[in-house]
Amino acid sequence: MTKLLEWLGGAGALGAIWLALLTNKIENPFFRDHYTFLLLSPIIVVGLFGLASLLLVLYRVYTFNDCNDAAAELQKEIVEAKQDLKSLGFKFKDSFK
Amino acid sequence: MTATLSFRLYLLLLLSLTCPTMAPNNKYSILLPTYNEVENLPIIIWLLVKHMNSSGHPYEIIIIDDGSPDGTLEAAEQLQRIYGKEKIVLRPREKKLGLGTAYIHGVKHATGNFVIIMDADLSHHPKFIKEMIEKQKSNDYDVVTGTRYVGTGGVYGWDFRRKLISRGANLLTQILLRPAVSDLTGSFRLYKKDVLESLTNSCISKGYVFQMEMIIRARQKNYTIGEVPISFVDRVYGESKLGGSEIVQFVRGLVYLFATT
Predict the structure, then answer these.
(1) What ipTM describes this predicted complex?
(2) How far is A61 from chain B (nearest CA, A)?
(3) Which residue windows are coiled coil (chain A) (predicted)?
(4) pLDDT tens digits for A18-77?
(5) Does A84 touch chain B (CB under 8 A)?
(6) How far is CA B245 from CA B119, B165, B207, B241, B250, in A?
(7) pLDDT tens across B55-83, in order?
(8) Pairwise CB contact (< 8 Å): A70 & B78
(9) Beta B189-192 vs B143-147: how paired, if at all?
(10) Which residue in the set B42, B231, B259 is minimally distant from A81, CB to CB?
(11) pTM
C-alpha cells in the first residue's frame, strides 16, 4: 500500500467518524452540547498540527549544529594537501594557486 | 575425548585471538562522480588516500568524470600517476549523463564488495568512511548513510534560510513518507555492492531527489539501514545553490514517492 493510500484511508476513517458524530448517527451527549467545537474540530486539529510542526522546525533550526571546527580542520588539511601534492609532483591549474 | 575437545576449543580461541579480522576480505570501492571539480579533486583524493590508508581497509577510488571542460580529467590522470592505477581508477564519460547512471557506470567497474558514494566537492570528509565501515560491520547493514540531522552531525556555511528550508523539507518528508531514516537527501553513503546495483536499477529520479528515492526504495525492499552522524561543510570552492528550481524538484520528488511507495 502506498503512503498516499494510507493517508487517504486514515483521513477517510476519521472523516467518517466526524460526519457520524456531526449528523448524530453516533449518539454522544458531549458533542451534542459542544456542536460548534465538533464542527470546527478538523480545522483545530490541522491548525494545532501545523503549529506544532512549525515550532519543531524552528527548534531544530536553532539546534542545528554549526560545524565550525570541521570547517577549520578542513582548511588546514587543504593547505597540507596542496603542499604534499606539489612535493609529489602534482601540477595545479594556474587559477588554483 | 574431552582432552581433544578442549584442545580444539583452545585452538579455536587461539585462532580468534590472533586473527581478529577473520571476516572475508572486504574491499571498498569509492565512487566519485565529478563535473568541473578541478580544484577539489586533488584535495579530496589526497584526503581519501590519507584516511583510507590509515584505516587499513583495502580500497579503490573510481573517478567518473562527465566530460568536464575545466580539466578535471587531466587532474585525475596526474593523480593516477602519483597514487597508482590500483588505487585510482578512471572511468570518464563523454558528457553529463546524470548521477544515477554515473553510479551504474561506476559500479560496473568496481572490484570491491562494498561501494561508497560521496561528493567530490569537499562537503563530505573521508574521515567518516571509517565510522561508516564500522557501523556496517556492527550489524551487517545493507546500507549505511551519513546524517546531518542527528547527534554530532551538522552543517557549516548555512544561513537561517537554508537551515529553515532544510529542516522544513526534512520534517515534511518524515511526516509523509515515515522513512525511519533521518537524512534522506544526503549523498554520503556506503552500500553493499549488490544492494546498490539493485537500487540504481529501480530508481528513476534525477539530482538529489535520486538520493531520496534510493533510500526510500531501500526501506521498501526491507534492506537494513544504519546511520552515522557527519559534518557537512558546504562547498569550499565553487557555489552551492538552493533556488526555486531545487525546491520545485524536491516537491515533485516527494509527491512522486508519496504516491508510488
Answers:
(1) 0.88
(2) 6
(3) 64-91
(4) 999 988 888 888 888 888 999 999 999 999 999 999 999 999 999 999 999 999 999 999
(5) yes
(6) 21, 13, 11, 10, 9
(7) 999 999 999 999 999 999 999 999 999 99
(8) no
(9) antiparallel
(10) B42
(11) 0.86
